[in-house]
Amino acid sequence: MRANNTLRTTVLGWAVALLMFFPIGWMALTAFKTELQAVSTPPVLFFKPTLENFAAVFERGDYLKFTLNSVLVSFGSTFLALALAVPAAYRMVFHPTPRTGSTLLWMLSTKMMPPVGVLVPIYLLFRDAGLLDTVTGLVIVYALMNLPIVVWMLYTYFKDVPREILEAGRVDGASAWQEVQILLLPLAWPGIASTGLLNVILAWNEAFWSLNLTTSKAAPLTAFIAAFSSPEGLFWAKLSAASLLAIAPILVVGWFSQKQLVRGLTFGAVK
Amino acid sequence: MKTDVLRSSLAAVVLAMAGTQAYAATTVTIATVNNNDMIIMQRLSKQFEAANPDIKLDWVVLEENVLRQRVTTDIATKSGQFDVLTIGTYEAPIWAKQGWLAEITGLPADYDLDDVLKPVRDGLSYQGKLYALPFYAESSMLFYRKDLVEKAGMTMPEQPTYDDVAKLAEKMTDKAAGVYGICLRGKPGWGENMAFLSTLINTYGGQWFDEKWTPTIDSPEWKKAVGFYIELLKKYGPPGAASNGFNENLALFASGKCGMWIDATSAAGKLYSKAESQVADKTGFARAPVAVTPKGSHWLWSWALGIPATSKAQPEARKFIAWATSKPYIERVGKEVGWASAPPGTRASTYANPNYVAAAPFADFVLKSINEANPNDATLKKVPYTGVQYVGIPEFQSIGTQVGQAIAGALAGTTSLDDALKVGQAAATRAMRQAGYLK
Amino acid sequence: MSQTLDSSRRTLPLVAPSVVVLFLWMIVPLAMTIYFSLLRYNLLDPGSRGFAGIDNFVFLLTDPAFVTSIWNTVVLVGSVLILTVVGGTLMAVLFDQEFPGRGVARVLAIAPFFVMPTVAALVWKNLMMHPVNGLFAWLLSSIGLEPIDWFTHYPMLSVILIVAWQWIPFAFLILLTAIQSLDPEQKEAARLDGASGLELFRFIILPHLKRAISVVVMIETIFLLSVFAEIRITTSGGPGTDTTNLTYLVFQFGLQQFDIGSASAGGIVAVVLANVVAFFLVRSVARELKPGA
Q1: Where is the chain membrane-spanning (chain A) (predicted)?
Q2: Which of A81, B24, C117, C258 could share a disulfide with A143, CB 3.0–4.6 Å?
Q3: Confidence of residue B18 (pLDDT cuts 50, 70, 90)
Q4: Which of A68, A189, A227 comes nearest B2 by C-beta?
Q5: Does residue C98 have a pLDDT over 60?
Q6: Contact between chains at A72 and B6 (C-beta distance less than 8 A)
Q7: Contact C115/A125, CB-based, under 8 Å?
Q8: Annotated domain spans of chain B
Q9: Cβ contact (<8 Å) for A79 and B9?
Q10: Cα–Cα distances in Å, from B353 out to B138, B232, B314, B361?
Q11: Is residue C100 assigned to a domain?
Q12: What does each C-alpha distance from A1 to A181, B207, C132 come to in angstroms?
């Protein structure tokens, strides 16, 4: 009975996992086919893998430059967002005022503004500030874009930090900033890390601002993929290769850090 | 300890950001479409950089719609992010009128501007001044599969009519074998389905606006032309026709799934290349079909390189665009990539070159189509606008795209033809009223 | 009391930067958008710029596509929420049990969340759902059925499927964490009392997940209201206006027609609508989330 159950769960679990992963796996497979194999029916499962698509993709754009920009932008914006959000969340949790609740909700509601509606104002501001096509510009946009979510996640996470420890520190005459630095950060590190991870993922995948506010110097991988989204003739294999290159770094980061991510993704929901 | 890590990583990020902004040579930022010809240009431009060590080229290669968005936002806000823009015959005069483009002057003597085909040059000029140099130019024509026409026991006239097309499509269609008699653009957009449909409507005797700028989308000519188009595609077209644009159809035809396809002459190079097409030796061509009138039955388009007035590297940019549209450049593509891939439609000298004519059996035919397309006289009745497959006013992008969406809806079967045209007429009227053409 | 006041004053500098930058980030573009929404302003024709009053709003609200787009937004957000919460819950229950290779299987199952929307849409459109060369077409025709032309005949369903595929892992991750925090003894006790698997789920697990589900609904709604890349790449809002959501409509005004006046008006309307949604959502969900409430 028990063994039977486990078998059923195993089969079901793996079936679901493979089903979810299938489009990505198929894309990865297609990236190593020739263009003619990629569109042949019935689909080719066994073939001699080729690297010609990757060569074609590399020739068309400086993949490393795009990747470097993606890394700078997503990690830079995450640091900036955390730097702003940690103190704010600390205060909201440990020194709440009557307005704390509504401030938190108001922050979330700023996320609801559709980016397209404010593109032209932002574009004009960036032009005048000289921020167009700069990594700094994108870092600022992404940090602000994700700040509400970051504050909220940290808020729920800090809630779980035992107050007594902080209060003990306060008695010793620590300033607010020391309190954050010495006591809170080490205690809440897992939560901060997973908040940061989610922020990195969101920034990495953002495709609207990155396409519209950059040209070439600061363009991240989302712009790289835009050059392949509808080329001429047979392009399935090249498209797959470019896609694989664009998502591979974040996929690896995500997989290695998924335990961390899971721990922090609770949004205080498990309580 | 952890904050130290945080601090040093922040410092690293800041340093890296500063590092990416330092350049020595003059940088020319080029915005271009991800078409094959442009990709070849990008590859060959290394030779330009080698010959001009003081110029560094920065490429922004985007899909057509994204490119248009990006470039228009930039030039209209005078942000000066680009030094070379890839624009078409639609944009060139409109943008020149706004003063957004730098006039093209001071070309090297050996550039031989008179060698550039006149209709193309005219299309890129405003008030007699030239604002962009053509990279390639195209008209439209009909491609067909010689083997399938033969199998059907029929022949393709040199100047087919749309009735001929319907008959041939019926005979060629063999859905079980995955062969569809006719492939046409269905993807909504003024430069996608409406480009083809405008030529179809022209030849059925219709037009976009009457002399007083009143839209005529609900006219009998439109109904007849669009009705014919929908029925043809529904009966003999491939599944998913409503989302097929130029590239999708090219892929379909090249993989042997289409009997006929009416589209840009610039597709010929790819269809006749053995590396890119499974039907290279079976492809034939004929003039774009006609119905009531031959006027406006085939279009004229050119992708060209222009320089925004805001560019800070105009001399360098001019040097590059002159290089990329020159006779030696075309020679170079011919020699290094293959003559069938040489950029077509821009220069008389290309068509006088025996190498090109030998590699491109369609050469004379394309030249004739381009020379005959007349944007100033493309409709049966008189109209206040220029353009064959578009209307040369800024509002047309919006109107064309909305009408295109409505028709794509009718093609997909979600609305009726009458409703779609009614929606299109209403949208066009609204837009023209908002823009002040109509009271 | 005085101590609270003191501490709140002392720590004000900690919260101020976030609030100030967010306020600026919201208010500056918003003010500019309101200003533009009152102008006749087409990027392509800067000469005709002038005061337009409420014309842009009238123009937008009388557009037949406007009502459609609101409805499409509701359908899209609602369907994806249902699919992801149900799918995520079922997967969470499944992955809560031990089985060989569970860790690896979980890694595979959450992978779609890391894929950028553009890539997800391209892969589904070209490799999976393409009516001629796609895998689904081949599967159907190999069992003798006519291939389905997804984006023509089931455009909204197709978009919903793609978006749901991307967000199920997110719901799954949060719900899995929540299930795993459930006291195992409680489950064991219920089982000893003779509760069936279904009863266990209905009376023990589901109530425990209520809060986590609220979180999923809230976060996803924020992102789903502005789904854009998936629509642009697969259907361009069509056929007709069948998959035009509000974000896409504003995009069409702003970046396809370059009518900044109308796009700004659309932006304002979207902000207002989003805040209406936020009001109800935040009130009901946030009550769940506020500690001690």
Answers
A1: 12-32, 71-93, 105-126, 138-158, 179-204, 235-256
A2: A81
A3: very low
A4: A189
A5: yes
A6: no
A7: no
A8: 2-138+301-360, 140-298+382-434
A9: yes
A10: 18, 39, 32, 13
A11: yes
A12: 54, 76, 46
C17 contacts on A by Cβ (under 8 Å): 84, 87-88
Our CA-based measurement puts residue B42 at a distance from the nearest CA of chain A, in whole angstroms, of 8
Show contacts of A180-183: CB within 8 Å, 24+ apart. A180/A86, A180/A87, A180/A90, A180/C14, A181/B3
Select from B76, B239, B413 the Cβ nearest to the Cβ of C46.
Answer: B76
Q: Is residue C24 part of a domain?
A: no
User: Could A87 and C114 be called an inter-chain contact, meaning their C-beta atoms sit closer than 8 Å?
Assistant: no
Handedness of CA A244, C161, A266, A270 (dihedral sign): negative
For residue B68, give both structure tokens: 């248009």
Q: How many domains does chain A have?
A: 1
Which CATH number fits the domain that encloses residue C218? 1.10.3720.10
Which chains pack against C, by 3+ Cβ pairs within 8 A? A, B
**CATH class for the domain made up of B2-138+301-360:** alpha beta
Give yes or no for C132 touching B (CB within 8 A).
Answer: yes
pLDDT computed for residue C16 by the predictor: 76
Neighbours of A (≥3 Cβ pairs closer than 8 A)? B, C
The per-residue pLDDT for range A109-126, each reduced to its tens digit, is 777 777 777 888 888 889
Work out the pLDDT band at A235, boundaries 50, 70, 90: confident
Residues 6+ apart with CB under 8 A from A126: A132, A137, A213
CATH of the domain at A107: 1.10.3720.10
Topology match between the domains B2-138+301-360 and B140-298+382-434: yes
Closest chain B residue by Cα to residue C150: B240
Q: Do C123 and A263 touch (CB under 8 A)?
A: no
Q: Does A84 touch chain C (CB under 8 A)?
A: yes
Whether pLDDT at B269 is above 70: yes
Q: Residue B86 gets which letter from DSSP? A: E
| Selected residue with higher pLDDT from B12 and C66 | C66
Identify whether the C-beta of residue B140 lies closer than 8 Å to the C-beta of residue B166.
no
Instruction: Report if residue A83 sits inside a domain.
Output: yes
- Could you report the per-residue pLDDT of C188-221, keeping only the tens digit for each? 788 788 777 788 888 888 888 887 888 788 888 8
pLDDT at B165 over 50: yes
Residue B125: per-residue pLDDT: 94
Chain B residues 276-315 with CB within 8 Å of chain A:
276-278
Q: Which of A154-163, B218-227, C69-78, C279-288 has the lowest mean pLDDT?
A: C279-288
- Burial state string for A217-232 with b = 16 or more CB within 10 A and e = fewer than 16: bbbbbbbbbbbbbbbb
C59 touches chain B (CB under 8 A): yes
Find the residue in B nearest to A230 (Cα): B63
Tell whether C29 lies on the interface with B, counting CB pairs under 8 A.
Answer: no
CB contact under 8 A, C43 and B72: yes
Q: How far is CA B217 from CA A90, A172, B16, B184, in A?
A: 62, 80, 56, 20
Of B394 and A102, the structure prediction assigns the larger pLDDT to: B394
Domain assignment present for residue C3? The answer is: no
Number of domains in chain C: 1
Q: For the residues C37-51, what does the mean pLDDT come to?
A: 80
User: Does residue C52 fall inside a structural domain?
Assistant: no
Round to whole Å and give the CA distance between A210 and A70.
10
Q: Which chain B residues have a beta carbon less than 8 Å from that of C252? A: 401
Contacts of A38 (CB under 8 A, 6+ apart): A30, A234, A236, A237, A240
Pick the CATH number of B140-298+382-434 from 3.10.450.50, 3.40.50.720, 3.30.830.10, 3.40.190.10: 3.40.190.10
Instruction: Please state the rounded mean pLDDT for residues B239-254.
Output: 87
Q: Which domain holds residue C211?
A: 59-289
Chain A contact for B62, CB < 8 A?
yes
> Which residue range(s) make up the domain with A159?
61-264
Nearest residue in C to A144, CA atom:
C22
Do B114 and C64 contact (CB within 8 A), yes or no? no
Q: Does the predicted model carry a pTM greater than 0.90? A: no
pLDDT at B276: 77
Interface A–C counts its CB contacts (< 8 A) at 293
